[in-house]
Amino acid sequence: MIEPPHAFVVAAVITNRFHLTSARVLEPAEILMIPADCVREAFDHDELFSRKMAIELAHSYRVVTSELRRQTLLSAVERLANWMLDRDQETGGRHHFAIPFDKRTLAARLGMVPEVLSRGLATLGKYDVHVRRAAVEIRDPAALDRLAKPEPPFYDPKE
């Protein structure tokens, strides 16, 4: 999942190769599409544009690497706990928020199948996290934080 103002399939466009990913929009959005040959032309001749594309590629690489590390080094329930702590911070740190998309999408986002997500949500009940439909309430943030282990090498808060 990418957030504005990041670009999608930059590596495929720059290298003129087939893109290896797909996307769908989860909420209303405006999407700017630029013809690939125009992007490559600007990349070849505009130093500032090239630098911005290199930064975008570096950001994408770090995000993918971070996600791969999380999926490799953390259990499904630890990834879910990390996501909940992140979401709580994004929504003001009030310890209650709504899951912004369906649970199938959340499972895919966290690198698991829906059944594993369901078991993970049940497990988080032991850590005083209550989920009803899309509503989440974290009653013991410290317990969830201990489970999540949100520190390097698992997590880079700048991603």
Describe the overall structure.
The chain has seven helices and three strands, in the order ααααβααββα. The chain has 159 residues and is mainly alpha-helical. It has two domains: 10-71, no CATH class; 75-148, Orthogonal Bundle (Arc Repressor Mutant, subunit A). It has a three-stranded antiparallel sheet, with helices on one face. A hairpin with a 2-residue loop joins β2 and β3 (135-138). α4 packs across α6 (114-124) and α4 (76-90) packs across α7 (141-148). It starts with 9 loop residues before the first helix and ends in an 11-residue tail after the last helix.
Can I get a quick summary?
By secondary structure, this protein is mainly alpha-helical. The protein is built from 7 helices and 3 strands.
Say how many strands there are: 3
Element-by-element helix/strand order:
HHHHEHHEEH
Biggest sheet record:
3 strands, antiparallel
- Which strands sit side by side, in order, in the main sheet? 1-3-2
Query: In the CATH scheme, what's the topology name of the largest domain?
Result: Arc Repressor Mutant, subunit A
Query: Mean pLDDT, nearest integer?
Result: 90
CATH superfamily of the largest domain: Winged helix-like DNA-binding domain superfamily/Winged helix DNA-binding domain
Strand content: 5-15%
Low-confidence parts, pLDDT < 50 over ≥5 residues? none
Please name the CATH architecture of the largest domain.
Orthogonal Bundle
**Main CATH class of the largest domain:** Mainly Alpha
Number of separate helices: 7
What is the molecular shape?
elongated
**Helix-and-strand structural type:** mainly alpha
Distance between the termini: 12 Å
Query: From the alpha-carbon coordinates, what is the Rg to the nearest angstrom?
Result: 18 Å
Helix content: 40-55%
What is the number of independent domains? 2
